[in-house]
Amino acid sequence: MQRDTQIFDLIKDELHRQRRGLELIASENFTSLQVMQAMGNVMTNKYAEGYPGKRYYGGCEVVDLSEQLAIDRAKEIFGVNYVNVQPHSGAQANTAVQFAVLQPGDAILGLDLSMGGHLTHGSPVTYSGKIYQAHHYGVRKEDGRVDYDALEAKAKEVKPKLIICGASAYARDWDYARIRQVADQVGALVLADIAHPAGLIAAGLLNSPFDHCHFVTSTTHKTLRGPRGGIIMMKHDFENPWGIKTPKGEVRMMSALLDLAVFPGIQGGPLEHVIAAKAVSFYEILQPEYKTYAARMQQNAQALATAFINKGYDIVSGGTDNHLLLIDLRNKGISGKKAENTLVKADITLNKNMVPFDDKSPFITSGIRVGVPAITTRGLKESDMEQVAVWLDAVLMQPDNEDIIAKVRGEVNEFMQQFPLYPEMD
Ligand SMILES: Cc1ncc(COP(=O)(O)O)c(C=O)c1O
Fold it and tell me: Helix or strand or coil: residue 190?
């Protein structure tokens, strides 16, 4: 067969783009070579609807072992008794939990999208805001932190069946115990979506949700540094409190309901090649080097926050506990959209982001989200963060000055050569 040179040329272009730039998108990372190799393997050819030992197709004896290894390693990392590694993405993991425990029209309560929450936590543009009756809590204006008192008041008012915590753009740790207290008062279950900080939680650097939240979902490709995908976990299985029945009319344990929600509820055949790559990334997380990586991420984020604060930038909540910062650019006279579009010309990638109480639309925004998982994987350290802030500041302060943009791009490209990315691919 003829080789598809068009796509392979584009893959080469993408490799060069990733190599030369400063990657500050908080939800991105660079997998190891072996994680990527595991993703491109013959398991992509295999249909394996069902779960290890209970499949609807023959010939699953090898993928059973691989999927079980992924499950066992995730259990070890997070100290949990139930793991489903089949969700194709973080959104699918959240959809499955909601599908398992909610009926159409049930009330849910999640962090507002404009305050850092995720689309699947009840945004009206997604299934979660269309199928369920979605309510939201937010952050306090004075300090940018989750307003747990308002969350409690809202929960008592709307009596949600599911309270969702976790965020896409929130730099502070979560008080999972407080949320569980509220949930118990109103008879709700709690889902913690740790898609962003999962790696820091795995390394013991942030509060653990597992003792307090009934369900925990995550992506595997952000701070966990695995392949693109999702995962669902529970520390303990439990009897479902509302007598929810399976399609056959049986009342089953939550683990069975979750498994049924993923397949056949919302997905078909699992991506066994991606599950193999998840297993490889979990193996890497279990090595001592990963703890060093996670600690470095947190140190880098804090150093970067300090560098921006020293340059007069307004960091939402005044700093960070995790791997990202949210910068409110209103005092700098540039929108998030312009910042994103200008920085990309200097080979610096990040995303525009709404800030709490934003007066601009989601397409313009007043802020940017800056994350360090990818640059930490490249090898940048705390001492490099001042330079990173200097480059961003130079471009943001004179966004129409093409000479400055070109100068910064040249410096970034030269600097990044010190941190080889996939040298084996040359
Ligand atoms: C908190 C949170 N949950 C879920 C997701 C969805 O993950 P995916 O893009 O894999 O569907 C994201 C993605 O950014 C996220 O930030």
Answer: strand
E strand spans, 171-313: 189-193, 215-219, 230-234
Q: Which atom of ligand 1 is nearest to the CA of 194?
A: 1
Residue 251 CA to residue 239 CA, distance in Å, equals: 9
Which ligand 1 atom sits nearest the alpha carbon of residue 94? 4
Which residue intervals of 148-189 are DSSP H helices? Answer: 148-158, 176-186
- For the entire predicted model, the pTM comes to 0.97
Which residue range(s) make up the domain with 333?
Answer: 9-26+295-421
Q: Are residue 188 and residue 54 in the same domain, yes or no?
A: yes
Distance 90 CA to ligand 1 centre (A): 5
Q: Write the pLDDT tens digit of every residue in 147-183.
A: 999 999 999 999 999 999 999 999 999 999 999 999 9
Q: Please say which residue of 255, 285, 315 terminates a domain.
A: 285
Domain count of the fold of the chain: 2
At 243, list the tokens.
């007598």
Q: Nearest residue CA, atom 9 of ligand 1? A: 90
Cα 195 to averaged position of ligand 1 atoms, centre (Å): 6
Residue closest by Cα to atom 16 of ligand 1: 168
What ligand 1 atom has the least distance to the C-alpha of 27?
14
- Please write the tens of the pLDDT for every residue from 84-124: 999 999 999 999 999 999 999 999 999 999 999 999 999 99
Residues 38 and 161 in one domain: yes
Any atom of ligand 1 within 6 Å of the Cβ of 226: no
Adjacent-strand bridge partners of 190? 163
Which residues are identified as catalytic? Answer: 47, 49, 193, 219, 222, 228
1 located within any domain: no
